Amino acid sequence: MMRMKNGIVLLMLLLAGFGVSAQDPQFSQYYQAPLYLNPGFTGITQQQRLATNYRIQWPNLPQAFNTFLASYDIWVDELRSGFGVTAMTDKMGSAGWRTTTVGINYSYKVRLTEKFVFSPGLYFGYGINGLDRSKLSLGDGLQYNGQSLDPDLQKLGNQQYFDFGSGFVIYNRSLWLGAAFHHLNRPNMSILNETARLPTKMTIHGGARISLYHGMRTMAKTSYLTPSFIYRVQGPISQLDMGVNYHIDPVSVGLWYRGKPFDKNITGGINSDAMVFTMGLYLSKFTVGYSYDFSVSKLSTASGGAHEVSIVYEFVAKPLHRGVKKQNRLIPCPTFHNKGNTWEK
Hints:
The protein is mainly beta. It has helices at about 1-20, 35; strands spanning about 45-55, 65-75, 80-90, 95-110, 110, 115-130, 160-170, 175-180, 200-210, 210, 225-235, 235-250, 250-265, 270-280, 285-295, 305-315. It has a single domain (about 1-345), classed as monomeric porin ompg (Porin), CATH 2.40.160.40. The protein contains two helices and 16 strands. The protein is globular.
């Protein structure tokens, strides 16, 4: 009977872990995690860029979900290419379930017209997935000084894997549209020396920058809107984020919706997940963002929603030298701030 109880507890733990890991971590401020969103964004500014993102989800629960992401990218004008690196760690649950990934990004810029640029990109990554067996407490451990004799426990380990993805972005100074395809090789995430494939994730996203001031008023503080959306599909899970930020430099505020507005839940209502409130401060080199997810699902406010902080630091790379052809000086991607850009000169 004890052996059966141990097996049931272990099975429930693993199923819960696989259920969560079947969906990638997400960021409400997805536009502040550009390399994670789409490898086509690599090197899309003419400056070097360092971005960090931290998200804590459901902080009121005993074990919150914590995700940390860091990325760096640079544009190399002579090669018309962007290069970048990313690193992420995602921790969940009382058993210390952790997924850590590192990867490299590459993109190539093609001028389609005088106003539009096409930026395809690739991602190659390495990851490790697993939990801390010392934090597991099974029934027979109470009889043997905290040590379980269940042989299934000894099968648990860390799974290492390679990952591959691609994406593209088409943009000009005021519009952008892109798509990304992650986990194209469907890496094996099983920690039991079995097979548990991570589903491929498809992401479609786009947005615009709409100026609210015209004519002579452009000399005053710039005011504009940046509506955008992102639609994700990964296995049986799909989700739509859409909203708008209002900017009066150097400050912005925004309101976003997350859910599946075209689907109905079991009660016949709209299948919604959260409303997201965002704030941003845009300085000459630093961009600092904060967001809070108000849960409107069955978890309600008992989960504590989610807090997220992002910091992006941009610093000037080497200036364009005279040997760089004019067609390589690409149109800048629309941004969520009013910083000057050498591509506009």
